[in-house]
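Morning!

This is the sequence you dropped in the shared folder:
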Amino acid sequence: MDLNRKRVTVLGLGRFGGGVAAARWLAEQGALVTVTDLAGQSELAESLAALEGVPIDRFRLGGHSEDDSRRADLLVVNPAVRPGNPLVEIARRAGSRLTSELELFLEHCPAPVVGVTGSNGKSTTAAMTAAILRADGRRAWLGGNIGRSLLGHLAEISPDDWAVLEISSFQLHWLGPHVPMPRVAVVTGCSPNHLDWHESWPAYVAAKQRLLTAQPADGVAVLNTHDPEVATWAGLARGRQGPLPELGSLPPLRVPGEHNRLDAALAAGAALAAGCGDAAVGRGLEAFGGLPMRLEWLAVIEGRRFYNDSTSTTPESTAAALEAVDEPVWLLAGGREKGCAMERLTSAAAARARGAAFFGQSGEMLRADAARRNAGLPCTAVETLADALRWCWDRSKPGEAIVLSPGCASGDQFPNFRRRGEHFAELVRAMTDPLRREALSSSVGAGGSPASERPP
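The structure's back. Tokens below.
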């Protein structure tokens, strides 16, 4: 589509950058861009600031108008927009073309693409893959659901580069039938997740499988065959299946846990499929130091080690964190449920945690189930993350660890998992000062949950 003077509606500006990148890039192509979002100006302040100076034709914030969908030549759907959204259906019936930020990138990217999806581990696997490609002397661009849109970098990407994309089930759902899919497809695993968004477990599975079923015939699929669901998908890929290296053949890693070794094996398989050598695999994995908020070590305070695993939004990722940390763990978990079973989280907490503070909307449900599984487990349900931190601090001892690994979405109290992790890091930094730590203790002890959500 020639975008010059075309009417384009970006349905959902959002706070993660994809809507911003799409609006900016489309305006640069000469499109008449309307940006619309249910959130208001104050909630979207950061995203709006990023569009300052961009010739956006119209902002419609705090609500949507059917006319913006009906009159659009092109409707760009934010991944958070749910299936069956009436505004999408209005555009479809009016003959508008539907697309997404990721689809625009895949259509225009000159470089071959590695796409990584899965219920857990996709961010780390994608980052490890990019690290190996760079260790092999390639120029690798890392983006997608990991939090960085590459749409605005298209002019810098050459056919000799590689793009490595973390791709969510939401993004896969909204990809059109004819979009060019990644040459190398990686699936890290598939377990129930986001069932509050997808209509059913089969719908979630179908979204993940699109990375394989729509793959080019000359592509390579790298599957986590240790995962019982994904192990059955080998016949779905249109391309050939790349081997998964043995975990014992990998070099020592700087990031802890068996789950990270599995991510490393998948990254190695993807990089080998992209033409990298074994030496580059070793160099890339040995140098990889982990990602922020993915079991990230923050500090040692009076003998307690603090870890930030805010990107844990599934029960399986929390269970993996509990298995990865060597010290006895005081767990901070909870948030907004996503419609998936939480037994994996509560059973892991009951079996492996020294104690647990469950916070947010799911707090009491998680506490009750963990206590049912282990009546001797010290655990509580509290309102806020600060309350949970204070409770664990008061009961922990030197030589133990305090780990934020929520296993839930953040939307009940935070805009996103990133802000949740930043808030936890702020609280931990405050605890390095005894006077500020005492102030935090006083605010929590007084039952002042609103005050306890602010760093003292």
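Headline: The longest strand covers residues 353-359.

More detail when I'm at my desk.
O.
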